[in-house]
Amino acid sequence: MPEGDTLYRIAENIRPVLQGQAITAALSNPSPQVPAIDAASLVGCTITSVEARGKHLLISLDDDRVVHSHLGMHGSWHAYTIGEPWRKPARQAGLAMRTATHEVVNFNPKLLELVTATTLRRNDYLQRLGPDLMLPDVDLPSILPRLRTHNAAPVGEAVMNQTLLAGVGNVYKSETLFLARINPWSRVDELGDQQLLDYLQLTHRLMRLNRKSGKRTTRFAGDGVRFWVYGRSGQACFECADKVRIRRQGDAGRTTYWCPTCQQPPAGR
Ligand SMILES: [Zn+2]
């Protein structure tokens, strides 16, 4: 499932084949959720930058327009050398762009739009996006006051709120709260500033470790099991042998995995 590190990696992978290149051909297929964009108008444009912002990807063109996409749960970006067969059907291509040497394809996007840079700057959601934990120089202390505005929220919901901090998805939520020994249903105001800051540092470090290609890993034990709790409900906790639990959390009903022994609720609850 795409999280902030997925988008960062995608940007790193497709930037070298797109940036500075002219688009020689393009196609866009509509899906039931996402209308097609005007792909013909991309031909002749040069790509000036490729940037991940949280879970969004922004591809800027030299005519002041930007391709803005969001992968959702099922989207992906692939880069192919010309002539290489695509690994998904062409009808699933929300957008495909060809340069002199490559084809870059966005399959099954949840959002795809072609907008002016000005419109994008006014995009309410992007404007409200919190500091991006994938960025090497992210200002972690600046996230504290943002979290404090959601003091009554369970921490497992707050860290997924992309307006407070950008990049954490379901996998990192479960894994980092386990590693920090924080109960996912603790309210933000039950955690001290230092505890939150330590949590953010840990999460930032783990996400940066995953910035290169390869399988997302938060547990480096050398036994092939990449996660501490994520996807392991009913199995023994690696630390205490209690059973890892799973429960839906928040309005969106996202799954949270945790160990009830290692991640005790705050005293008195
Ligand atoms: Zn445990």
UniProtKB/TrEMBL annotation:
Listed EC numbers: 4.2.99.18
Stored Gene3D superfamilies: 1.10.8.50, MutM-like, N-terminal
Domain Formamidopyrimidine-DNA glycosylase catalytic: 2-94
A GO molecular-function annotation: oxidized pyrimidine nucleobase lesion DNA N-glycosylase activity
Similarity annotation: Belongs to the FPG family.
Reactions listed under catalytic activity: 2'-deoxyribonucleotide-(2'-deoxyribose 5'-phosphate)-2'-deoxyribonucleotide-DNA = a 3'-end 2'-deoxyribonucleotide-(2,3-dehydro-2,3-deoxyribose 5'-phosphate)-DNA + a 5'-end 5'-phospho-2'-deoxyribonucleoside-DNA + H(+)
Record-given protein name: DNA-(apurinic or apyrimidinic site) lyase
Family matches, as Pfam families: Fapy_DNA_glyco (PF01149), H2TH (PF06831)
GO annotation (BP), single: base-excision repair
Coiled coil: none
Keywords, ordered alphabetically: DNA damage, DNA repair, DNA-binding, Endonuclease, Glycosidase, Hydrolase, Lyase, Metal-binding, Multifunctional enzyme, Nuclease, Zinc, Zinc-finger
SUPFAM superfamilies with a match to the protein in the record: Glucocorticoid receptor-like (DNA-binding domain), N-terminal domain of MutM-like DNA repair proteins, S13-like H2TH domain
CDD domains, alphabetized: AcNei2_N (cd08971)
Occurrences of domain FPG-type (ranges): 228-264
